[in-house]
Write a structure and sequence with these properties.
With about 180 residues, the protein is α/β, with parallel strands linked by helices. Helix content is about 35%, strand content about 15%.
């Protein structure tokens, strides 16, 4: 019995989001799990558009972006030779609510999603889909910093606060050898 059978990875199709996709695919390969790639078309953010813009045209563009994003997850899995089954879905609604709903309805064991690590006024003004999912999900959530940085200070792993440039690889991932003490 493996720890994970189904891993949900919400995607927005961005290059930064590939970090979260890569983590999800790596975990799925190790655990023999399937990856559920989900794109949520955020219809609420387009509700205030002027009527002269055709919703049909905008909707088609958004669905095209969504299809490209979930197809990219399938291609990423194939290119990585990960031998991971990828199930794709595109839904419309509030991103955080739809991610939580999909994770629960698809009986996922883990959600792996990116976070931009915003703080202060940016988080207050923009909100955080990842934070809302973490707070509202009954399914465990693994967040992946999309900018590749690790914050210093309280809550960091012992020995990581004084990390140097040479302690990270080209992608900004921590190169750990022998645990926290190095």
């Amino acid at each position: 019995m493996s720890l994970y059978d189904r891993i949900l990875v919400p995607t927005d199709g961005s290059a930064e989001g590939e970090r979260a996709v890569a983590h999800a695919l790596d975990l799925a390969a190790v655990h023999g799990a399937a990856v559920h790639a989900l794109y949520v078309v955020d219809t609420a953010s387009y509700a205030g558009m002027p009527l002269e813009h055709s919703w049909e045209g905008v909707g088609d563009l958004l669905r095209d972006d969504a299809t490209a994003a979930v197809d990219a997850v399938e291609e990423f899995a194939a290119d990585a030779d990960a031998d991971v089954d990828v199930v794709t879905a595109i839904v419309e609604g509030s991103p955080s609510r739809e991610i939580i709903r999909h994770a629960e309805e698809a009986d996922c064991d883990l959600v792996v999603m990116g976070t931009h690590g915003r703080g202060g006024i940016d988080r207050l003004l923009l909100g955080s889909v990842a934070e809302k999912v973490v707070r509202g999900s009954s399914v465990p959530v693994l967040t992946v910093r999309l900018d590749g940085t690790v914050p210093d200070g309280p809550g960091t792993v012992a020995g990581t606060a004084e990390r140097t440039e040479s302690d990270t690889d080209a992608d900004g991932d921590v190169a750990v050898e022998g645990g926290p003490t190095g």
